[in-house]
Amino acid sequence: MSIHDIQMPITGAAKEDLHHKKRRKKHTRASRACTNCRIRKTRCLWTDGTAKCLRCLSLNVPCSLEVKRSQNHAMDEKSEAAQRDSQQTNEHDRKLDEISDNVKNLMRLIKDRLPVSGEANLPALEIAPNPSKFSESYNPINMTSNFREVTSTSAMNLVSILAMNQSTSNIIEFENSLPRTVLAGLGHIDLGFQSRCTNPVENGILSRKEGVELLRIFRDRYGRWISFPESYETENIYERVLSTCPLFFTIMCALSLKYGDPLLRERCYVPLLRVIKCDLEHTMLNPPLCLEYIQSLVILSLYGTNLSEHLSAGLCLDSWQLSSNALSVFLKMNRLGLYNRLYSVEDVEPEFNELTVHRIWNILILVHLAYCLLYGRKSNFSLAALQTRDVSQFSMSTKFDYRIVSECSIYSIMYKHTILNATREATVKEMEVWTHQWDFMFGKPLNQFIEIDFHWVWILIYLKEYGFTFEGQSLVFKTSNDATDPDCDKKFRTMEGHAYKILELIDTVKDDSYFAFLSDQIHLIVFFAAAISIDLLCLRRNNSKGAIEQTEENTTSNILIILLRYIYRLRKVSTTNEHPFFKFSMILEKSLTSKFSKQDLEATGMYSENDGISGTPYIFEDPGDEEEEAQELGQI
């Protein structure tokens, strides 16, 4: 009987190994006999799937082949696992390459974005190779009519690509493929809705002639903020604005009436303010994506305090919020493309449009940062996003543009210190760099506002460092430091010098009209400096020991005189008792009379107990529209 005929007893482990075999495996002679077979000088046979040879398996004894086979089996398993992983990786790579090729092919098929006018082109979606391109600080001006994608890997954007592929260039099918709010949010379509604004001429508030004249006044007084094309006559502006954004027309007319014809103001001013309130509420939900609407928000942000004086109109504008909203609308328009939303290239040079966009953005940054500092409110945007645009690349840029950039830069430094809690040392270093960069503009005509900002920022630095605060309208000055300490007294005097310099600089504006037309944040800064000056002056006098030197008396007298001149001027240009200037003057006068004796005030020659504050009228110096504009917008 041969070994093949022997019915060997098989263990449970062997049964489990052999259970899955469909047919009997052929026995194979081992390349080297196991120890038991070599001793017995018999053939050493093993079959595939077993660890022992057949003899050792049948006798149920240990086999030397078992250890060797287990080692080889482990090595084979590792090799097979590595091979499987490699095959899976290659398969994943192949699928990703296939998807990438499909997307690229789809991108080549989609050439243009879907126009809002309903043309037969679908939007081009840019898949950016570099994710850093979409960092918050990277927002290049989009002077094209093409949609600029923000993040091509967003969930809904990938779905929209699928919808475009399925629509096969059928615009109606594409517009119906997803909810319209989703497509509008991605920027593929415009909802086609523009809030209906009130036309004051059609409603009978103003006549056409009155409207055109008010636009002419606005252009003369406030045009530097808007940059109307020189080729546009006032009639052209009238027609364009009423056709695109009547709200802007209403705002310009109301601001022109602020210091305009008293009879026309009495008849039209409050109704115009009510129209502004109504239209602004409507447009905040679905803002018109046009240049004129952005210009509306610019003017409202700059002059919101002045336009909110009449309680009967119910208009109360928050310049911080308005400037924040304006920045959001600007970014949305920029994402959709600005080319078709600006002035026609047939009327202006391409550089004019691009400079206009840069100028509007920079002005919005200026106003927003100013009110962040004035109100102590943190912006909804990161500081990386609140960066000015470079205007040096344009031959048409003016001194006004550089002035705005310089003011934004110093506001940004102070924002980091007061709102983001940057250290004083870092702030002082940045201030030194800023001064080195911009001090060439100090002392130049109509650049006193840069210097005002410089001194105001230093006052804020000292306030934050030494914990100076106010309480209510009494403007009580407090500090955690000992005010009689020599070092602390030195800081007080330094702050007093900065505050006095601000009052001196605003006093150089000899034209009352130009003074009245200054933006609200400048008036708030000067009012703040005046309040600081009164309290610092009072504190210094109270802490003086013994006789006050004559030089110090003269300094006190000079400060009181310039304060009284400022208060008198505020009251002089006020149009009503509700006017912000009138309220400023009342607060400052109350503070002065409560902290200084009647003799001190009367010694200035500008105050009497019976008549209150009186002043020497400023000489009205009107250089004329063209000369003033040339000075204000003169080339650097």
Would you give an account of this structure?
The protein is mainly alpha-helical and 636 residues long. Helix content is 58%, strand content 1%. The strands form 2 sheets. It has a two-stranded antiparallel sheet. β3 and β4 form a beta hairpin. The longest helix has 46 residues. The radius of gyration is 40 Å and the shape is elongated. The N terminus and C terminus are likely disordered.
Look at the structure and give the mean pLDDT.
77
Output the radius of gyration.
Answer: 40 Å
Largest β sheet strand count, sense and barrel closure = 2 strands, antiparallel
Distance between the termini: 116 Å
Question: Could you estimate the helical fraction of the residues in percent?
Answer: 55-70%
Number of DSSP-assigned strands: 4
Task: Throw out a few tags for this protein.
disordered N terminus; mainly alpha; disordered C terminus; two-stranded antiparallel sheet; elongated; 636 residues; 58% helix; 4 strands
Q: What is the fold's blueprint, element by element?
A:
Elements: H1 12-18, E1 28-29, H2 35-40, E2 45-46, H3 54-59, H4 64-109, H5 155-167, H6 171-175, H7 180-186, H8 208-222, H9 234-244, H10 246-257, H11 262-283, H12 291-307, H13 319-336, H14 350-375, H15 399-418, H16 424-438, H17 448-466, H18 486-507, H19 512-516, H20 520-543, H21 550-573, H22 580-595, H23 598-602, E3 607-608, E4 612-613, H24 625-632
Antiparallel strand pairs: 1-2, 3-4
